[in-house]
């Protein structure tokens, strides 16, 4: 029987073989100078400021920074209402496949706006760009269940990648393939994982600052078998895309698998703090902070029995909820988060009573 070390060595060899036989794409990049989100090359039929807003949106999209990405895609639409890919980008921000979240209503409204532009004959797109739009439409076809939509979307993106091989079709096709119903995220079958990982490793090697390459590699290695292979992208990603709180958080997926609790804690302290700064700077409601990172921080404290810090998080979450109420803001998932914190804390037998308001 093949032991784990031998299996991983064989797996790594397969990755290197697939990378070496892959197509090499153009090396020129477009780097955003305002937000530090990495570097991509994604030419479209637009140019000027609208294209720059679009590129920033895609960079944010690769880091699952959906609200920020949406702002840039909508600004690109304002600058150029005929810019088809700006509508594609906004549609992508309403679908969060890894988190199993999908906003059908918001996406349908975008499709209506796009439809009006198409009917007027003013829309600007190439065949490649039309392929992106045709693919994302599948995700909003409410006549089919979501599992079927995800499968068909992944197939459409794979076809688009084969027809128009590029960093972006590769990245989005890889992400789509990781979110189909036959892909087991927590324990992926090697025959499913290897081809996706090989393509992403190829992208990571070609452009070490591509946020999607690093981000999706971390996700694909986020399991006990392959976690060690995620250390490289984990160490790079938060340095390259440090404007995004989610990018700062993501290395903790690998650190958690490897039980590196101090690093899990540090990653999520920095990630949550970054989201607080963004929320305040952009004058957004308190519900828009990165509570995903905050939850990971709380659970890491419980894992090492640091009950004092865990209790402080419960108290702070209560204060945030109260402040949001006083501000007249929507609470979003803050009450649910607080309830789960309290439940998890009480479930720890050794935890002292947490006196909270």
Notes on the structure:
The chain is an all-alpha fold and 357 residues long. The chain contains 17 helices and four strands. A two-stranded antiparallel sheet has the order 1-2. Helix 3 (66-79) runs antiparallel to helix 4 (84-93). Keywords: Signal.
> Averaging pLDDT over every residue, what do you get?
92
Helical content (DSSP H or I, runs of 4+): 55-70%
**Overall number of domains:** 2
What is the CATH architecture annotation of the largest domain?
Answer: Alpha Horseshoe
The helix-and-strand class reads: mainly alpha
Number of continuous helical runs: 17
Shape descriptor reads: globular
CATH topology of the largest domain: Serine Threonine Protein Phosphatase 5, Tetratricopeptide repeat
The value of Rg in angstroms is 21 Å
Q: Give the distance, in angstroms, between the N- and C-terminal Cα atoms.
A: 56 Å
The CATH class of the largest domain, by name, is Mainly Alpha
Q: What is the succession of H and E elements?
A: HEEHHHEEHHHHHHHHHHHHH
Sheet of most strands: 2 strands, antiparallel
How much strand? under 5%
Number of DSSP strands?
4
Provide the spatial order of strands within the biggest beta sheet: 1-2
Low-confidence stretches: 18-32
Keywords: Signal
Protein name: Tetratricopeptide repeat protein
Organism: Fodinibius halophilus
